[in-house]
Design a protein that fits this description.
heterodimer; A: alpha/beta; Rossmann fold; six-stranded mixed sheet; 17 helices; B: mainly alpha; ABC transporter involved in vitamin B12 uptake, BtuC; two-stranded antiparallel sheet; 4 strands; globular
Chain lengths: 507, 330
């Protein structure tokens, strides 16, 4: 059976300021097939898809659609050309009805150019019925469950009658039954000669529905294979198969007594029954794929969220942490994952950004002791080698790496015993990355406990003394440094258990 | 290289102090058009005229920096005015509100009025922090209810015949300076120190700049929101005392739409409604610009109607300039 090529991407490169997100990637999609795109977090999957739908423009490279070279200027252009996308993040308008959401921007009009609500409703009803999705289109979006919202998104993408549909992790928010339903829909689409690009982290799905698999790694094209020629192990090897040459010289540190212990930590829908402990001088890594609940777990430990159940011990004593200020009192620091959203005050100076978590110790007679702040901040600036013309510079003018260093020094000023670092080197350049790694080792040597979340396997393997792996809110295993390998972590991160791991499968 | 650096610095100064140059330009223009404008008596007069709005504007500056808004200040002013006035009526006045009230030391009515203002602010802050309703709605509600309370308290009538010692707050002079001007300057200094030199102030900026980041940094956001609105309420109450003392009467209809003038002053002075940015110095300049405009246009006989039109245009212009400045940074 031969399938006609509908989309061809040639040598696509996308450079964001300071980061090469896609490096010379090529991809072919054929009519009537499902083509899975796989890779670790940050491999460039979503970025590649966003260049097809017109959210990003490639820095270089060509896109051919139905044999003709096209430049996809924006999402509208893509939709009009016959390309639609189911986005990973839900992008609906909660106060509008299901029908209004589906037909947003292309509402059927009556002869007075007013919106024809009756027609819109009946169109929506027919669309949903045809897909066997039984949702009343006159309901408000906000009245639906998350899974139903996702089904509406799927219906919406299909309603454009597109010839190419991109699905970015469409099953991350839906239940098993709905996944089956989606697969039926995908089968019908295939029969109607629609091409589907399907991003997923789930191996099971790939082997169930994909005809082709393309693997990306660090923004680079690795390979495209027919799915029938692949198995679990081959695929994992393709995804992680980078050489370990660039690895870090992790110096051995003296690992002391237990500092922090979590027992049966649970939070409804996010994670359940998590148990681990970390010791003084230890770097404890937490690995897992998107949606594993790693950040949510750390946020809960730090008091950003409130736990449902579980116990937290520091130095062997049970403590209660309800807010971040409680956590700070127990000398815990938390470098959050999303620098811009929960870290930086973009419009404020480097110094203000640095001192904010530690203002308490700079109060003298009720007033802020700016001299002390300045000298402390200067010291940190030197220690972390933060590149900024002055401490008065607005932080938005610094590079990502230097912003991250400022945030780290914010927490170092509070002299913490436990540092939780969530993706400490995401989106920063290689030089700054190495410096942050050195700093982490230095801090561990001082006897501090470091808990690090990272989606980059080399970083997790290179820095951690022990590694906990999570999958969809559950811990699937804790591995000692000497026993850890990329394959083993990926094995656990995709939901398999440690017992089922066989080293020989991967050689 | 050296040149561009200088050029950048020059541009930086213009953008940072732009609104100050606008004030200087307006003062130059006015003094050119009217010879009596620059006389020290007129200058002091301008500051006296803006002192009531200015006091409210200090509090509003805190509120706006925290990414909020306070619409209740005008009503708080009225409540404070009638409460303070009712407690400082002359002993021999026949129509006293509290006929058997002994002559209280002056500080007691003042403390009571200020506390009521702070309490209303606390209600605003608690509503915003604890129920999560937008500041606009919370303070719109209190604005309406508190105005009603002022009318109820005074039975809709002015409370007059106030003691001279009280009237001194609005009409007296110390070393040739009107007392309202001194209060305005002293509270300006205190507000500046609070905002720039205390933990409270740092947290105001942090909450407005990035509320989530502030929370993660260990800031008790709810508590500080309550403090911010309480401070704004207290200042609005103080302006009520000054105004009622100035006109020797506590009237429940005082201060209608003063909150908008105060918001205008803070906005012209560069306080950003996106939060995280603003200074007391800027607000003083903003209030002065409004004052110079009113006074100067009066002196050269421009009608009050035109004054209003011009004032509106200046507010929009100031914000447009500010936005452009911020956009360039991105």
């Amino acid at each position: 059976m031969t399938h006609e090529i509908i989309l061809e991407m040639k040598n696509i490169t996308k450079i964001f300021p300071g980061v090469k997100a896609l490096d010379n990637v090529s991809l072919i999609a054929k009519k009537g097939t499902v083509h899975a795109i796989m890779g670790e977090n940050g491999a460039g999957k979503s970025t590649l898809m966003k260049t097809i739908i017109g959210i990003h423009q490639p820095t270089s490279g060509k896109i051919f659609f139905k044999g003709k070279e096209i430049i996809i200027e924006n999402t509208n252009f893509a939709i009009n050309s016959g390309i639609s996308m189911i986005h990973q993040e839900l992008s609906n308008i909660p106060h509008m009805t299901v029908a209004e959401n589906i037909y947003l921007g292309r509402e059927p009009l009556n002869k007075f150019k007013l919106i024809n609500n009756t027609k819109m409703l009946s169109n929506a009803k027919k669309l949903l019925n045809d897909l066997n999705i039984f949702i009343d289109p006159s309901l408000k979006m906000s009245e639906l469950s998350i899974a139903n919202m996702q089904m509406v998104e799927i219906a919406k993408a299909i309603s454009y009658d597109s010839e190419l549909i991109i699905m970015d992790e469409p099953t991350s928010a839906i239940t098993e039954a709905e996944v089956e339903h989606l697969f039926k829909i995908i089968k019908t689409l295939k029969e109607n000669n629609v091409a589907i690009l399907y991003i997923t982290h789930k191996m099971k799905e790939v082997f169930k529905i994909a005809d082709y698999v393309t693997v990306l790694r660090d923004g680079k094209f690795v390979a495209t294979e027919e799915a029938k020629n692949l198995d679990n192990k081959k695929l994992i090897t393709m995804m992680v198969g980078r050489s370990l040459e660039k690895m870090f010289d992790k110096e051995t540190t003296h690992i002391g007594k237990e500092k922090i212990r979590i027992e049966n930590y649970s939070k409804n829908r996010l994670f359940s029954n998590i148990n681990f402990s970390a010791k003084e001088g230890e770097i404890f890594g937490i690995a897992g794929l998107m949606g594993a609940g790693r950040s949510e777990l750390m946020e809960t430990i730090f008091g950003v969220r409130v736990k449902d159940k579980g116990k937290l011990f520091i130095d062997g004593n049970e403590v209660t942490i309800k807010t971040p200020s409680d956590a700070i009192k127990y000398n815990i620091a938390f470098l959050t994952e999303d620098r811009k959203k929960t870290g930086l005050y973009l419009m404020h100076s480097v110094q203000d950004n640095m001192a904010i978590a530690n203002i308490n110790s700079y109060i003298k007679h009720g007033l802020i002791d700016f001299k002390k702040i300045k000298s402390d901040c200067l010291l940190e600036k030197e220690k972390l080698r933060i590149k900024t013309p002055s401490l008065d510079q607005l932080i938005m003018n610094l590079s990502g790496g230097n912003q991250q260093k400022v945030l780290i020094s914010r927490w170092l000023l509070t002299d913490p015993d436990i540092l939780i670092l969530d993706e400490p080197t995401r989106g920063i350049d290689v030089g700054a990355k190495a410096e942050i790694h050195k700093l982490m080792i230095l801090l561990a040597k001082e006897g501090k406990t470091i808990i690090m979340i990272s989606s980059e396997l080399p970083e997790i393997l290179g820095m951690s003394d022990r590694i906990m792996v999570m999958h969809e809110g559950k811990q699937t295993g804790i591995i000692e440094r000497k026993d850890a390998s990329q394959e083993k972590i990926m094995h656990l991160a995709t939901g398999a258990s440690l017992d089922s791991f066989n080293e020989n499968d991967y050689i | 290289m050296e040149n561009t650096k200088k050029h950048l610095k020059y541009k930086h100064i213009i953008s940072k102090y732009g609104i100050f140059f606008v004030l200087i330009a307006m003062i130059s223009l006015m003094s050119f058009l009217s010879p009596s404008f620059l006389k020290s008596r007129n200058i002091i007069n301008i500051v006296r005229q803006i002192s009531v709005i200015g006091l409210i504007a200090y509090g509003v500056t805190f509120v706006i920096i925290s990414k909020g808004i306070d619409l209740s200040s005008g009503s708080v002013l009225a409540v404070s005015a009638v409460i303070a006035a009712s407690l400082v009526q002359t002993p021999d006045w026949a129509a006293k509100m509290y006929p058997n009230l002994p002559v209280l030391p002056l500080f007691i009515p003042i403390i009571i009025a200020l506390s009521v203002g702070a309490l209303i602010g606390l209600i605003n802050g608690s509503l915003i922090a604890k129920t999560g309703i937008p500041a606009f709605i919370a303070t719109l509600g209190t604005m309406i209810s508190i105005r009603g309370f002022a009318l109820l308290y005074a039975d809709g009538r002015p409370i007059s015949s106030l003691r001279d010692s009280y009237n001194f707050i609005g009409q007296g002079k110390i070393f040739g300076f009107p007392v309202p001007v001194l209060i305005f300057l002293i509270m300006g200094l205190i507000s500046h120190i609070l905002l720039k030199h205390t933990r409270f102030g740092k947290y105001v900026y942090a909450i407005g700049g990035n509320k989530e980041a502030a929370f993660v940094s260990g800031v008790n956001v709810d508590k500080y929101l309550m403090l911010i609105y309480s401070y704004a309420g207290m200042l609005a109450a103080l302006s009520g005392i000054v105004l009622s003392a100035r006109i020797s009467s506590g009237q429940p209809g005082l201060g209608v739409s003063y909150e908008l003038d105060a918001i205008a002053a803070a906005t012209i002075g560069g306080t950003s409604h996106s939060g995280g940015i603003g200074t007391i110095g800027g607000t003083i300049i903003g209030a002065l610009i409004i004052g110079v405009l009113n006074n100067g246009l009066d002196l050269i006989n421009v009608s009050a109607y035109w004054q209003q039109i011009i004032k509106g245009i200046i507010i929009i212009g100031a914000v447009v300039l500010d936005m452009r400045k911020n956009n360039k940074r991105k």
